[in-house]
Specification:
The complex is a heterotrimer of chains A (about 500), B (about 325) and C (about 325).
Chain A (H helix, E strand, L loop, with lengths): L6 E10 L2 E11 L4 E5 L6 H8 L7 E6 L2 E3 L4 H6 L2 E4 L11 H6 L13 H14 L15 H14 L4 E5 L7 H16 L3 E5 L3 H7 L2 E6 L2 E7 L5 H9 L17 E9 L7 E6 L3 E6 L5 H8 L7 E6 L2 E2 L5 H6 L2 E4 L3 H5 L6 H5 L8 E2 L2 E2 L1 H14 L16 H13 L5 E5 L7 H16 L3 E6 L2 H7 L2 E6 L2 E7 L5 H8 L8
Parallel strand pairs in A: 3-8, 3-9, 6-7, 7-8, 13-20, 13-21, 16-19, 19-20
Antiparallel strand pairs in A: 1-2, 1-4, 4-5, 9-10, 11-12, 11-14, 14-15, 17-18, 21-22
Helix pairs in contact in A: 4-5
Chain B lengths: L16 H5 L2 H19 L6 H26 L7 H17 L4 H25 L4 H20 L9 H8 L1 E3 L4 E2 H19 L1 H11 L1 H6 L4 H27 L10 H11 L11 H20 L4 H28 L3
Antiparallel strand pairs in B: 1-2
Helix pairs in contact in B: 2-13, 3-8, 3-11, 3-12, 3-13, 4-5, 4-6, 4-11, 5-6, 5-11, 7-11, 8-9, 12-13, 12-14
Chain C lengths: L1 H20 L6 H26 L7 H18 L5 H26 L3 H20 L4 E2 L5 H5 L4 E2 L2 E2 H19 L1 H11 L1 H6 L4 H27 L1 E2 L7 H11 L11 H20 L6 H21 L8 H9 L2
Antiparallel strand pairs in C: 1-4, 2-3
Helix pairs in contact in C: 1-12, 2-7, 2-10, 2-11, 2-12, 3-4, 3-5, 3-10, 4-5, 4-10, 7-8, 11-12, 11-13, 12-13
Chain lengths: ~500, ~325, ~325
């Protein structure tokens, strides 16, 4: 295709403290075409999105639109240049109406500077119709569900009438039907001659909608081309930098006796009838869309919230958990998904983080022993290959992968019997990821029972002995390692197929 | 499979001289020295041991509350009702004294009222989940309002002599150390030990830096917050005992505005209002700086209201100056 | 809209109950007097509300008011021929300048609002002492036209109430008809998301503290002329009454939630309580305790209304939430 690109990114470099997010990256977007941006978590995709939407400024490099040099110092500059985005995290205002959420920052004005509420509502209604939303412009955002909020986000991106639309994992919270609707919208945008940058982890989606692809690895451009000239093994190899069968060091471990038996765990709005049995030495995978209720169910098991009904048995005995302290006492550890908020105390040093969940072990009569803390920090830090200049280095200054290792170490320091890992490799570099996988295997081999929540198909297929699939708060299907296929799991997770009993 | 040589990681972060010199506590020591030198220069009476001992009467009560307030602010809470708790506790003691209660009972009543008021705050904040600033603005009006309803424009002044000794007497004759100051020093040592040496202290810091991660690490965040409110209320009760005994009377406007002075001391002491950082030595130094500066200025007859302007400026400057300096230092190398 | 309706019902109920016990309370003259008396609270509560919307707080408003009021009294004594318009402008600008200082420290240096305004509260109070040399200015020091303005009437309504009405209308316009106003809700509701929408916190902070200052300054002249006295301690502690009005009116201290009508009703509620106490022979000493209890009751009610029932993941939960709209 000899067309001129509408957007050109040249030699873009972006450095964050301790992380090289992008290095000399180039990329072109063409009108009427969908370009897929590929790369593992932490490869730099989100940084590109943030640079194109004016949230970050590149340290070096240039952005050209229609051949003209652009410089974005705020999101407004980006819209003005015709770029809008559906962000990965829904960015929203719970206490405002849907219409206000769609038009925040660029509400239509009447002459004289007043907000034109009438036209704002009318245009919102149109946009909502185009995304086939089942709610209106005057509804308060806090009354909507996760997928509905995502539709608002999509409507918001469309409201700018931009020539370039960025979609950062737009399907992660959508059901199969909603994904079909989204792809109809993408087709329409293409027909209107807009350029689309499409970011997704799911290869089936990429092969379905994209015309071109660009691949990043560790912040560097590692390849690009036309979708019709490529297949998924080749893309995976580019993304990961080695062939896929080597990444998951799943060991064959003899599954032991049941450790944890969960029966009919319920919450009024978040999940229902969650039942499963976890065995010694087993890695039990929980797969589902973002917002399927997996984290919520596990957090209830960990004592963060209380279930409305259901029983939990540990080694055959009924277990009453009313706080996280109870859960830790019972030998349950939970490595949360949101590392920065729930996992790590960022201003704390490595040692203080590692001992936080097991302080009593390092104290006599509540007085802390520095030597005891230091020895466990050294032991776990070395075992997990944490890279640091000293064991008091603040977590703020560590890379995401090293932060995650410290958080995992914190939980190992409690000497748990059950380890729940919630998206343990989200947003960390390839090296740390492999280390976490290897370590997970080792722990299972040592007899720990592991629950692995993940939204990454290769991870759940590669690591889990059994896979539970959740959809809209319920376990809809379960698979053994042998019977699990990518297609079957995705179908179950997106609400396809019939519900399990 | 792993080479231990790669793991030559130091247990402790390197300590440099400039880190030490830039520590907030070091700067506070320098400020304290300046205050002492300035006061000595403007008034020959300042360095008199009896005068200094006198000065401690004026800040020891606030200083005792500041210890509890420091912990509350460290875990991201605040208690604006402490001065109102003093009013209510003082009222209760006054009514009991009128009814003929003896000194031990008066002390017990003062501390209990403080603890109950603190528990009320703590219940609303930690159990019901209300923001502490709004709750304590409300209880501040409520507690002092009750004192006002009961007292009207009257005052209670009939306190037993033994009780008054608590606020006016000395634990040691030479050097002259009043009971209140001695109690403050003792409490400061205990607080410093708990905060800086025990598991509980580590939990406070974790809660202040990241309450969610703290809860996810098995720390019973809400339970700790509740008890910190009880503690601070009780310390306000202690202050009420000492203050009532010292001035020998209870009026509805007793200790009016103290909450601001206490909070000023805590923030000047380096406790971040955003939570998670600050030390007890810092707070103790700030208490001394504020107490001695106020005392020195009053020695040369500077009106109280002007002193409060200076303290207000000091509060803002103590936070603004480091920010400005940091920005300038950042700009230079670039 | 529902909570404002409930608050309005409570207010009507309160007026009826008091009216039964003391019919004089519900005479037109008495009701007009309550509105006039509450005018200050209407204006200052709205100014405080926009600050709280951005997750801030301004404890210095009452000190600011007293400072601006003292300045006008001094100016009027020094220049008796100064027209009232000039005095109003002077008062407003004095307040604006002091508010701008707050805003600059908060937005420019990123110091927490509670710390800044706690400090400037002490500083502004002290400045009054410094500029006035500690003296009290009474109505004898003020010119007749200085004193007459707030009581002068237009169409039977005092100019104090007219000014309050204009200020209220301006706040309504700002908050419901301008991008800036809606942006305040965005910044307070979700600062990160607001940034994604091109709305930055710092300029908004500078704006709200400056507006809060300007309104306080305006009220400074009106207060001093209405009560005919200016000294260091006027309106002492009034900042708490102002915050109480906001909380009662449903403004969330966590930011992003609050309406003009709710805040006005919150202020009216307090105004009625204050004015009713002497009428029904309750000692005015009760006022403080009552407003404390009301703040606590209001914040408990607010919290119950705001409590999140968890995420809506189960399909039946979503339907339920949709149906309950």
């Amino acid at each position: 295709m000899a067309e001129e690109p509408i957007l050109q990114l040249d030699h873009v470099t972006k450095q964050f403290p301790g992380v090289r997010a992008l290095h000399d990256v180039h990329m072109e977007l063409y009108p009427g075409q969908v370009t897929a941006l590929l790369g593992e978590n932490g490869a730099g995709k989100s940084t590109i999105v943030k640079i194109l939407t004016g949230i970050h400024r590149p340290d070096a490099g240039a952005i050209h639109i229609n051949g003209k040099l652009q410089s974005f110092s705020s999101p407004r500059d980006a819209w003005a240049s015709g770029i809008s985005a559906i962000h990965q995290e829904t960015v929203m205002f719970d206490d405002l109406t849907v219409a206000e959420n769609i038009f925040m920052g660029h509400m239509p004005l009447k002459s004289g500077g007043r907000i034109d509420w009438q036209s704002m509502r009318a245009r919102s209604a149109e946009l909502l119709k185009s995304v086939e939303a089942d709610f209106g412009p005057d509804d308060l955002l806090k009354r909507l569900g996760v997928a509905q909020k995502h539709l608002v986000e999509i409507a918001r991106a469309l409201s700018h009438d931009s020539r370039i639309v960025i979609m950062d994992e737009p399907t992660s919270a959508l059901s199969a039907r909603e994904i079909d609707d989204l792809f109809d919208i993408v087709a329409q945008l293409k027909a209107e001659g807009r350029a689309i940058l499409f970011i997704s982890h799911k290869f089936d989606e990429i092969f379905r909608v994209a015309d071109r692809w660009v691949c990043l690895r560790d912040g560097e451009h590692v390849g690009e081309g036309l979708i019709k000239d490529v297949d998924s093994p080749k893309l995976v190899k580019l993304m990961v930098g080695r062939s896929i069968d080597r990444i998951f060091p799943k060991k064959q471990i003899k599954i032991g006796e049941p450790v944890l038996e969960v029966e009919g765990l319920c919450n009024p709005t978040e999940f229902a009838d969650v039942s499963f049995t976890l065995h010694k030495g087993e890695i039990l995978g929980f797969y589902g869309l973002v917002g399927a209720g997996r984290s919520e169910a596990m957090q209830t098991l960990f004592g963060v919230s209380k279930p409305s009904s259901g029983t939990v048995k540990l080694n055959g005995k009924n277990l009453e958990i009313s706080s996280t302290a109870d859960a830790i006492e019972a030998g349950i550890a939970y490595v949360p998904e949101d590392r920065q908020v729930q996992g790590a105390v960022l201003p704390f040093g490595i040692r203080e983080n590692m001992t936080l969940a097991s302080l009593q072990r390092h104290a006599s009569k509540s007085v802390l022993s520095l030597a005891s803390e230091q020895s466990v920090t050294r032991k776990l830090g070395e075992r997990l290959s944490v890279k640091a200049s000293n064991w008091e280095q603040r977590l703020n200054d560590l890379s995401g992968g090293n932060q995650q290792k410290v958080v995992i170490a914190k939980w190992l320091a409690t000497e748990p019997k059950i380890l729940i890992l919630d998206e343990p490799t989200k947003g960390i570099d390839v090296g740390s990821k492999a280390a976490v996988h290897e370590f997970m295997g080792e722990l299972a081999a040592e007899g720990l029972a592991v629950i692995l929540i993940t939204s990454e198909l290769p991870e759940v297929l590669g690591m889990a002995d059994r896979i539970m699939v959740m959809h809209e708060g319920r376990i809809v299907k379960s698979f053994t390692r042998a019977e699990a296929t990518a297609e079957a799991i995705v179908t179950a997770a997106t609400g396809g197929g019939h519900h399990a009993p | 499979m792993k080479q231990p040589a790669r793991y030559d990681v130091a247990d402790r972060a390197p300590r440099t001289l400039s880190d030490f010199l830039l520590r907030w506590e070091t700067i506070l020591v320098a400020m304290l020295v300046l205050v002492v030198i300035g006061n000595t220069a403007i008034s020959p009476y300042f360095l008199d041991i009896y005068n200094l001992s006198d000065a401690t009467f004026n800040f020891s009560e606030k200083a005792i509350i500041a210890l509890g307030m420091a912990l509350l602010i460290l875990v991201r809470d605040i208690d604006l009702s402490v001065a109102a708790i003093i009013a209510l506790a003082s009222l209760a003691m006054g009514l009991a004294a009128d009814a003929g209660a003896g000194t031990p009972l008066l002390i017990l009543i003062g501390l209990s009222v403080g603890a109950v008021c603190g528990a009320f705050n703590g219940f609303l904040v930690a159990r019901i989940g209300l923001p502490s600033i709004v709750v304590t603005i409300g209880t501040m009006s409520l507690f002092r309002g009750i004192a006002q309803v009961v007292l009207g424009d009257q005052a209670i002044t009939k306190y037993p002599a033994a009780f008054q000794t608590l606020g006016q007497g000395y634990l040691v004759r030479w050097p002259p150390i009043p009971y209140s100051f001695a109690l403050f020093l003792l409490l400061a040592v205990i607080f410093a030990f708990v905060l800086h040496r025990t598991t509980l202290g580590r939990k406070f810091y974790a809660m202040g830096n990241n309450p969610v991660a703290a809860q996810f690490s098995g720390i019973q965040v809400d339970k700790i917050r509740f008890w910190l409110f009880v503690l601070t209320g009780t310390l306000a009760g202690v202050a009420a005992v000492l203050l009532t005994a010292r001035i020998g009377s209870t009026r509805p406007n007793i200790a009016l505005g103290w909450e601001l002075e206490v909070i000023t001391a805590v923030i000047l002491g380096g406790v971040s209002i955003a939570g998670g950082s600050g030390t007890i030595p810092g707070v103790v130094l700030a208490v001394f700086i504020l107490g001695l500066a106020t005392f020195g200025l009053s020695l040369i007859n500077v009106p109280g209201i002007v002193i409060s302007v200076l303290l207000g400026l000091l509060l803002i400057a103590s936070i603004a100056v480091p920010i400005v300096v940091r920005r300038l230092m950042k700009k230079k190398p670039a | 809209m529902r909570r404002e309706f409930i608050l309005a019902l409570i207010i009507v109920g309160l007026v009826v109950v008091i009216g039964v016990r003391a019919p004089v309370f519900v005479t037109p003259a008495s009701l007009v007097n309550i509105i006039t008396d509450t005018s200050f609270l209407f204006m200052l509560a709205l100014a405080q509300m926009i600050v709280i919307l951005t997750r801030g707080i301004d404890l210095s408003v009452a000190a600011n008011l007293a400072m601006a009021g003292m300045l006008t009294a001094l100016a009027s004594r020094a220049m008796p021929e100064l027209p009232v318009v000039a005095i109003i402008l002077l008062s407003t600008f004095c307040g604006l300048a002091l508010g701008f200082v707050n805003g600059a420290l908060i937005a420019g240096l990123g110091i927490p609002p509670i710390v800044v305004t706690l400090g400037t509260l002490a500083v502004y109070r002290g400045l009054i002492f410094v500029v006035a040399g500690g003296q009290w200015l009474t109505s004898d020091d003020m010119t007749p036209q200085f004193l007459a303005f707030p009581k002068s009437t237009l169409l039977g309504i005092s100019s104090l109430v007219w000014i309050a009405a204009i200020v209220i209308a301006a706040f309504w316009y700002l908050l419901s008809q301008t991008r800036t106003g809606r942006g305040l809700y965005a910044v307070g509701g979700n600062p990160v998301a607001a940034r994604y929408c091109g709305i930055d916190l710092a300029p908004q902070q500078l704006l709200v503290y400056s507006i809060a200052g300007a309104v306080s300054g305006l009220c400074g002249y009106l207060w001093v002329s209405r009560y005919g006295i200016a000294y260091v301690d006027i309106a002492q502690g009034y900042e708490l009454t102002i915050i109480a009005a906001c909380v009662i009116g449903g403004v969330s201290i966590a930011g992003g939630v609050g309406t003009v009508s709710g805040t006005l009703l919150g202020a009216l509620f307090l105004g009625i309580v204050v004015n009713a106490l002497p009428v029904i022979n309750v000692s005015p000493f009760w006022q403080m305790a009552i407003s404390g209890a009301v703040i606590l009751a209001a914040v408990i009610v607010n919290a119950r209304a705001e409590r999140r029932a968890g995420k809506l993941i189960l399909p039946e939960a979503r339907q339920f939430a949709g149906a309950s709209k």
